[in-house]
């Protein structure tokens, strides 16, 4: 069971901390159940299906050829997220910092994966945290893709 | 491990044996690896992904809304199979008889699922069998969809 914490940032941390980012674009052919998503991460392309919940939960992710991605991408119009992801290792933890683009420009989120619910990691000082948005559904990628920027 | 036997038929068995069939159309967004297929069977719609082989084999099938099917179907142009499937129970075995349509009209296949490699079932007399095509790749649905009728 993967536990994540997600924080809203007021701005992007200094470039020298971030290093080089990787370009990500993802879009939803269907954002309901089953969720059908395509994603480009750098030069790799993926198709993901998630369906059901609990014991009936099914998740499938396969790498697809660029040509297949280009066929599917137009079907995601109106339900897309474009961002640059920076990965920063700090104090034994691995932070993923997303700088959103397009209609979501100005949004910055930092995510951390924890080994368990009880584990705590103090966010490093270089992260300009506004607040913890882990449990706020409006900051899920799927919601951002389909509904745009939350009015906070 | 599912074992199937597939037979080429010269024509369709008598209608009174077949009963009512169900309309199936399926098409391949990608016919390579991963294979990405959409299928309509009666009033139900499915998206299937198959990837890898052996231990890395992954297969995912989810039911999708009609609207999602209609978005994906145009991407399968040139790689489609349309058929009517009849299911006939005989001597404890369950036969699936496919009557193909479109550019594959005139093709009839009968399929039987066996519990093991060693099980044998004598095909019933009402099946006008030409020959066993279990191991002939040209009679796979994917090949029929992309290459059309085999020159037998």
Explain the overall architecture.
Chain A has 152 residues and is mostly beta strands. The first copy, chain A, is built from three helices and nine strands. A nine-stranded antiparallel β-sheet of chain A has the order 5-4-3-2-6-7-8-1-9, sandwiched between helices. The interface between A and B is medium-sized, with 18 and 18 residues.
Secondary structure layout plus pairing:
The structure is a homodimer of 152-residue chains.
Chain A: E1 3-9, H1 15-18, E2 22-30, E3 35-41, E4 44-51, E5 58-63, H2 66-72, E6 80-90, E7 93-100, E8 108-114, E9 129-132, H3 141-147
Antiparallel strand pairs in A: 1-8, 1-9, 2-3, 2-6, 3-4, 4-5, 6-7, 7-8
| Count of helical regions of chain A | 3
The parts of chain A where pLDDT drops under 50 for at least 5 residues are none
Oligomer: homodimer
Estimated helix fraction of chain A? 10-25%
Sum up the overall morphology of chain A in one term. globular
**Total number of beta strands of chain A:** 9
Chain pair forming the biggest interface: A-B, 18 and 18 residues
Proportion of β residues of chain A? 35-45%
Based on CA atoms alone, the radius of gyration of chain A comes out at 16 Å
What is the typical, i.e. mean, pLDDT of chain A? 93
Biggest sheet statistics of chain A: 9 strands, antiparallel
What is the string of SSEs of chain A from the N terminus onward? EHEEEEHEEEEH
């Amino acid at each position: 069971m993967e536990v994540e914490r997600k924080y809203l940032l007021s701005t992007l941390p200094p470039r020298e901390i971030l290093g080089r980012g990787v370009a990500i674009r993802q879009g939803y052919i269907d954002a309901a159940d089953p969720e059908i998503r395509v994603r480009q991460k750098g030069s790799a392309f993926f198709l993901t299906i998630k369906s059901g919940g609990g014991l009936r939960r099914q998740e499938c992710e396969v790498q697809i050829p660029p040509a297949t991605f280009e066929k599917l991408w137009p079907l995601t119009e109106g339900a897309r997220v474009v961002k640059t992801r920076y990965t920063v290792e700090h104090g034994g933890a691995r932070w993923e910092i997303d700088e959103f683009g397009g209609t979501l420009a100005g949004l910055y989120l930092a995510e951390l994966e924890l080994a368990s619910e009880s584990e705590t990691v103090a966010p490093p000082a270089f992260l300009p945290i506004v607040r913890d948005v882990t449990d706020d559904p409006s900051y899920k990628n799927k919601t951002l893709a389909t509904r745009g920027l939350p009015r906070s």
